[in-house]
Fold this protein.
Amino acid sequence: MTSERYNARESEPRWQRQWDQKAIFASKNDDPRPKYYVLEMFPYPSGRIHIGHVRNYTLGDVLARFMRARGFNVLHPMGWDAFGLPAENAAIERKVAPKAWTYDNIAAMKKQLQSIGLSLDWSREFATCDPSYYKHQQKLFNDFLRAGLAEREKRKISGSSRSRSTRRNCWTRSIRWTAGRTRCG
């Protein structure tokens, strides 16, 4: 048995580079093994990860590695919940363009998450604020609206003056999912 201490600062980057070079966590669509999907929540790119992120993604990572060891083709992607007013308001408060604020935070958080050595398939990464992503959401929603699976209605709502997400006590158009309706009924 060796008396040398494990040096994580030396060993981890070396192994992570090998994992990246060999793309061992990339999931191939044409892989004949049974497929398994692991998806934790997408973080809001606030700029820095915290212990809650580490706990959450470590749990998913353990499951992904376990299923790979059992012979599954595991898809374990990462994305960023980056669409909406919280990101915009944070950028405005800091006098920074929302797009720059969001993508800078994504880059910082990605670097932090990569340093942990999670078995994520970074080739499948996306951000919900990217038009190449949300154009599909918009199309899907419009399809639901045309099919009668969603509807528009006027409704009185309250908002938060802090997040400026809606105007307090004003009438606005809102969308409501039609409960109980299916394509066949």
User: Anything to note?
Assistant: The chain has two domains: 1-129, 131-185. DSSP finds five helices and six strands in the chain. The longest helix spans residues 51-69. Confidence is low (pLDDT under 50) at residues 166-185.
